[in-house]
Amino acid sequence: MKCKICKGEVYITIKYPKMALCKEHFIEYFEKRVKKTIKKYEMIKPEDKVLIAISGGKDGAVVTYVLKKLGYNVECLHINLGIGEFSKKSLECVKKQTSYIGVRCHIVDLKELTGKGIPEVKSRKPKCSICGTAKRYIVSKFACDNGFNVIVTGHNLDDEASFILNNVMNWSTGYLARQGPILPQKGKLPKKVKPLYELTEEEISSYAEVVGLEVFSEKCPFAKKAITLEYKEMLNKIEETRPGTKYRFVIGYLKNRHLFEKEIEDIPLMECKICGMPSSGEVCSFCRTWELKEEIDLKVKG
């Protein structure tokens, strides 16, 4: 096979839409898809101050690389979760990635901030749930404290398809009503967007490789095989014989999301009496879990 555009040596064969591309034209194709997604869903404006959550994995690194290349005003935030060697290796990779891309990266150490890393937190909740709460809170708090009006995450087409399928299988209509490529600003919480929303994990991995990004792929020692990973495997098997299934499934969901909107409980948010962040109760889940007595200050000095 030859590259569809220049007839040069093929680097990757895209399954949907089916085409073979050389390295140069794959990079061009990938970046055009990101630009199209940003424009289609009105994610980011040129004047926005953008914060990207980055862990060392392929998704955060790739979305940082592309947005920086496209000229957006981006900075990164990495949270050291205090999970031994895993967190150390993750941090090392993040430093290499952001240095290579040429973007400022802020580091928040959870243990230094609260006195406890993820392993030290005592709770009946699963560690993954505790970790998710911590990451969402710190990213939002950091953005608020430092004037970022858009938060970017690296969620991709595979993530979204498996999440939607999981919630359809369980008829979790509340989640189905809220899922999508953007989460609009609510109160002081900045808008959250997913520029890789229509790109597959395979395409993202290939892009990381072709532009020379080092990627951290080690699994967290607390991670168990989540049901969404099983759904990813199922969808991948269907995709092999019916290319485009994941894309059509996600786009079809977006067209029909309005069917679930009546399920949204519009719970008014109040301010956490400890930290002042939006909360459904007097004390937010982060302050409760970490037993905080006063607000943490994440404003960058200097």
UniProtKB/TrEMBL annotation:
<keyword id="KW-0547">Nucleotide-binding</keyword>
<dbReference type="GO" id="GO:0005524">
    <property type="term" value="F:ATP binding"/>
</dbReference>
<keyword id="KW-0479">Metal-binding</keyword>
<dbReference type="InterPro" id="IPR014729">
    <property type="entry name" value="Rossmann-like_a/b/a_fold"/>
</dbReference>
<dbReference type="GO" id="GO:0016740">
    <property type="term" value="F:transferase activity"/>
</dbReference>
<keyword id="KW-0067">ATP-binding</keyword>
<dbReference type="Pfam" id="PF01171">
    <property type="entry name" value="ATP_bind_3"/>
</dbReference>
<dbReference type="GO" id="GO:0046872">
    <property type="term" value="F:metal ion binding"/>
</dbReference>
<feature type="binding site">
    <location>
        <position position="287"/>
    </location>
    <ligand>
        <name>Zn(2+) 2</name>
    </ligand>
</feature>
<protein>
    <submittedName>
        <fullName>Uncharacterized protein</fullName>
    </submittedName>
</protein>
<feature type="binding site">
    <location>
        <begin position="53"/>
        <end position="55"/>
    </location>
    <ligand>
        <name>ATP</name>
    </ligand>
</feature>
<feature type="domain" description="tRNA(Ile)-lysidine/2-thiocytidine synthase N-terminal">
    <location>
        <begin position="49"/>
        <end position="215"/>
    </location>
</feature>
<feature type="domain" description="2-thiouridine synthetase TtuA-like N-terminal LIM">
    <location>
        <begin position="2"/>
        <end position="27"/>
    </location>
</feature>
<feature type="binding site">
    <location>
        <position position="284"/>
    </location>
    <ligand>
        <name>Zn(2+) 2</name>
    </ligand>
</feature>
<feature type="binding site">
    <location>
        <position position="59"/>
    </location>
    <ligand>
        <name>ATP</name>
    </ligand>
</feature>
<dbReference type="InterPro" id="IPR035107">
    <property type="entry name" value="tRNA_thiolation_TtcA_Ctu1"/>
</dbReference>
<feature type="binding site">
    <location>
        <position position="272"/>
    </location>
    <ligand>
        <name>Zn(2+) 2</name>
    </ligand>
</feature>
<dbReference type="Pfam" id="PF22082">
    <property type="entry name" value="TtuA_LIM_N"/>
</dbReference>
<keyword id="KW-0460">Magnesium</keyword>
<dbReference type="GO" id="GO:0002144">
    <property type="term" value="C:cytosolic tRNA wobble base thiouridylase complex"/>
</dbReference>
<dbReference type="InterPro" id="IPR020554">
    <property type="entry name" value="UPF0021_CS"/>
</dbReference>
<feature type="binding site">
    <location>
        <position position="22"/>
    </location>
    <ligand>
        <name>Zn(2+) 1</name>
    </ligand>
</feature>
<dbReference type="GO" id="GO:0002143">
    <property type="term" value="P:tRNA wobble position uridine thiolation"/>
</dbReference>
<feature type="binding site">
    <location>
        <position position="154"/>
    </location>
    <ligand>
        <name>ATP</name>
    </ligand>
</feature>
<dbReference type="GO" id="GO:0051539">
    <property type="term" value="F:4 iron, 4 sulfur cluster binding"/>
</dbReference>
<keyword id="KW-0004">4Fe-4S</keyword>
<keyword id="KW-0862">Zinc</keyword>
<feature type="binding site">
    <location>
        <position position="275"/>
    </location>
    <ligand>
        <name>Zn(2+) 2</name>
    </ligand>
</feature>
<dbReference type="InterPro" id="IPR000541">
    <property type="entry name" value="Ncs6/Tuc1/Ctu1"/>
</dbReference>
<keyword id="KW-0408">Iron</keyword>
<dbReference type="InterPro" id="IPR054306">
    <property type="entry name" value="TtuA-like_LIM_N"/>
</dbReference>
<feature type="binding site">
    <location>
        <position position="25"/>
    </location>
    <ligand>
        <name>Zn(2+) 1</name>
    </ligand>
</feature>
<feature type="binding site">
    <location>
        <position position="6"/>
    </location>
    <ligand>
        <name>Zn(2+) 1</name>
    </ligand>
</feature>
<feature type="binding site">
    <location>
        <position position="3"/>
    </location>
    <ligand>
        <name>Zn(2+) 1</name>
    </ligand>
</feature>
<keyword id="KW-0411">Iron-sulfur</keyword>
<feature type="binding site">
    <location>
        <position position="79"/>
    </location>
    <ligand>
        <name>ATP</name>
    </ligand>
</feature>
<dbReference type="InterPro" id="IPR011063">
    <property type="entry name" value="TilS/TtcA_N"/>
</dbReference>
<feature type="binding site">
    <location>
        <position position="159"/>
    </location>
    <ligand>
        <name>ATP</name>
    </ligand>
</feature>
<keyword id="KW-0808">Transferase</keyword>
<dbReference type="GO" id="GO:0000049">
    <property type="term" value="F:tRNA binding"/>
</dbReference>
